[in-house]
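Bench log, entry 3. Co-assembly request; chain sequences pasted below exactly as received.
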Amino acid sequence: MNYFPKSLAVGFVLASFASASVLAATHPVTGETLADDQTFTYSLLDEFTSVDPQIVEDVSGSAFVRDLFEGLMNQDADGNLIPGVATGFTTNDAKDVYTFTLRDNAMWSDGNPVTAHDFVYSWRRLADPATASPYSWFAEIMALENVGGVMSGEASPDTLGITALDNHTLEVRLTASLPYFAAMTTHASTFPTPEWVVRTSGNDWTKPENIVSNGAYILTEHIPNERAVRERNTMYWNNDATILDKVVTLVINDENVDLTRYLAGELDMGTVPSGQYLRLKEDYPDEATSFPRLCTYYYTFNLSPSGQEAYQDVRVRQALSYAVDRSVVTEKILQAGQIQAFTFTPGATAGFEVPPVAFGQMTQDERNAKAKELMAEAGYGSDNPLNIELMYNTSEGHKKIAIAVQQMWKETLGVKATLANQEWKTFLKTRGSQNFDVARGGWCGDYNEASTFLDLLTTPSGYNDGKFSNAEVDELMLEARTLSDATANYTRVEEILANEMPVIPVYHYTGVFMLKSNVKGWPYDNVEQNWYSRDLYKVSK
Amino acid sequence: MIVANKNKIVEMANNLSENDSGTGRSLWKDARSRFIHNKAATVSLFVLIAIVLFSFIGPYFAVWSNEQIDWNAMGIAAKVGMPSIESGHFFGTDDLGRDIYSRVIQGTQISLMVGVLGATVAVVVGTLYGATSGYLGGRTDQIMMRIVDILMSIPYMFVLILLLVVFGRSIGMLFIGIGLLSWLDMSRIVRGQTLNLKNKEFIEAAKVTGVSDFKIITRHIVPNLLGIVAVYATLLVPGIILAESFISFLGLGVQEPSTSWGALISEGAGTISYDTEWQLLFPLAFFVVSLFCFYFIGDGLRDALDPKDR
Amino acid sequence: MFNFIIKRIGIAIPTLLILIALSFYLMHAAPGGPFTSERPLPAQVLANIEAKYGLDQPVWNQMTNYIWGILTEFDFGPSYKYHDRSVNDIIGQGFPITMKYGFWSFIVAIGVGIPLGAIAAIKKNTWIDYLAVGISIGAQVLPNFVMAPLLIIVFTLWLGWLPGGGWNGGSWEYLIMPVIALSTSYMASIARITRSSILEVLNTNYIRTAKSKGLPTKTIFFRHVLKPSLLPVISYLGPAFVGLITGSVLIDIYFSTGGMGYFFVNSAFNRDYSVMMGITILVGGLTIIFSLIVDLLYAWVDPKIRY
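Structure output for the full assembly:
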């Protein structure tokens, strides 16, 4: 803690030392004996994009920002909403005006108090076109008053629907009724930013020598592509409850090296290379971890006019989908508890029941038999084989699945599939301009609700690269927005998709990692996997 | 284009030998006999031919094709995918249960072709360019070498991506991509040697007697460069064979289920600590043996062709 | 000589401009841009971002603005991917790292490679020669992507002697594995070029004359053979040292060194135009400087060479 200027209140520092020494003995709630060294080291496959709350756009960067900054509300280990800088909030009946009460003991790491004005500044900053935040659309889905005008530059950022009534009271006005609005304030984009530091240091304000933050940790070292270190922020209002003293992020670009270094004891948390989970689970049952994620892996047919005519034939699409043995993909290639997919929406999604779509109920032998039948009906056979180019973006995992699917199609249907990998941005451009036969896709839910998946296959969706268009689906999804319980609509849409087969759902993702067994407090039950370092601790072995 | 250049060289060489055969001995006959007397070079040549033959005959002994998946071995290669005569996987399987034996054979064809043709392009273009630049000297040399500087500094990944986007995917584009990248160093080295050579008496003599620049370059400079060219070419081959896997990574070049040594070695290296060492060792063994062969052949050629030894 | 250097520096400027223009065109012609993502950004958001970075202007304007920024403020622009960093920051951080492990790799490669090649040449076709050749090929056939994971498994996982990666300001224990992995392939090339070059020189008339005069072998070798045979080695080393900046990507990937190689490759994949341009200009500048140095060295090795 030598980075703290001596001029700071000595008593405060002493108090935190005192409490730290008490904590070094046992955990205050569970009573476990804590390790002496409370340093947590984990790895990232890639450097994160930013630690600026309003700029950050990736998952690993958001985790970093959640440690450095604190928003109005936080999540607990189960994903429930708990107080952050705000002690609570009230809302009107229409749920379009929210009033947050801020705690008076929240402080920035330079000793300034955290006030409602800091949030006003940061939210305006998020929407301000001058900031040009890639995440400014988040302000739009928060439905803040005037956000459209601010983002297009027509209105001044001052007109945004957020006001500091006094230093500790914040009022937010929305243009729509959003019952879940408070939950959105756990998102990194809404975290406060210290205006005075941004003013004086400009783009350099996030560098360790300049940064001022209000979260449980402060950034003390950052060498892009090598390491970043955050250490305990003694000014944090709840510093006494923080157990980890130091969190180190190492960037390790190769997953196999990552695992080697984890096994060599250099990391507390590491990567599981693709296909290695089962083996690691056998050798390290307490450390290898797998949990379901809200993501779907699929192949999309090009149904646009530029696509092959064969894909306009629903029998061809069904046959190709039926012939994919999903159990091979999940159990032999991926081997980390992934779930076979017969619907586009993962079963783990809240408020979604996986409908009993017919082809999901069959055995693979039945599916193969049916697929052969359909393919023959469509007029393709050994004398007239279907030629397909299966496109995927360069990656070891995508390659393995594509190779297996190619062989399945060949052995079951006699389809001649060629594989084509492309580097990521070229791939996106090719797929986005409908210049493909069949392309790989992956989709992760933005929120825990089925529409985040099914909207993708509606006609107006910007993500619908296969250009599937079905009037009934569009109508059902539009209607779902106004229903309090849209489960029936989602079920119906999935049934239509199972018949029309615009995409081949392959599997639903799981997250996997290695975590040393002496690290406790990981929020396994938080579906969004929003973790906070201050909830973690290391017990002595 | 490559073939055309090759023919040209042979033709050139023939002319050369005719003109220089005043002593009554053919330069090429002489070189051949010297090469044959170099034991390491001849043995290497035979081994290399054996590898090439193997890549054509090998498939007749294969139980599995290079793309076929052994569904029983898939995902458990470490337990059941080891090399075995019974299972028909003589070299074991990869993680997907594909036969390494067949894949090595198929990769051998691709990699040797890529390596030899890529190096040929680089050698022919680089040598002629470098020799011309160095011999002509002055402003021409300056401009030609600054072009090389520019081409060396251009972010080549974009060149490769554009090749893919504009011309699509084909093995021909792979050679062009590789050739484009690898002749630059060659031209630099050749130019350096040429600068040194052109001050030698025999070049001066040729100049005085009115031999044209083109003839001096092709008949006097280039033959005297063959030593360093042969060595550098053998250095290029492994580089090119490995570079192929990176170019394929960008989407250009060899596509699965076809493979190459570079792809096999890098896959095998990735899984090195998961008890599947055969995935690395077999392709690596082929690679290593071939490189030794290339080296000794290159060395033998150098000795055989060295005009000073005549 | 002085005039020659001035002239070359004069040519460097148009050379760099052509390089910048070509690279700019290539980058913008490649599909996708820095803000292309799996989830296309809403039109308004994208417009704001493009306006901020000037990406909404014609490529020609972008290029002139870019060059102007460099000339007036030495500003190479912000990174489009790592928003907290400018290109100056990234190069300022990565370049010294690459230079440090690159420098030591070259020292090792030259220090081992040249003697190895020289011994092999002098003792041609003896077991010493074959051993030297075996070592140099052996070093070359283990590509970086095989060597690097092996080193980490042996020295970090099994023996626990060295950290498995990172840089930590470049302290020696973090330097060893990158230098081993990187120097081996250069060493092999240097040894083989040296060997062949020395053989060539040994065969020339004036060395034969010197030998027939009965001069001691040692004197002949150090006075008359070594210097002229370094010519091709110099031709090889110049570009190789520059190539290190962009070619050390595997070292950065496997050892998490944070050097330039990974930034270079990654900026191409991310279409991080400004980082790409910054590195390209750096590489271009160094290429030009090293070409000049190599040319000057030629003149030193062979005083007959005139430009």
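The mean pLDDT of chain B is 80. DSSP finds twelve helices and no strands in chain B.
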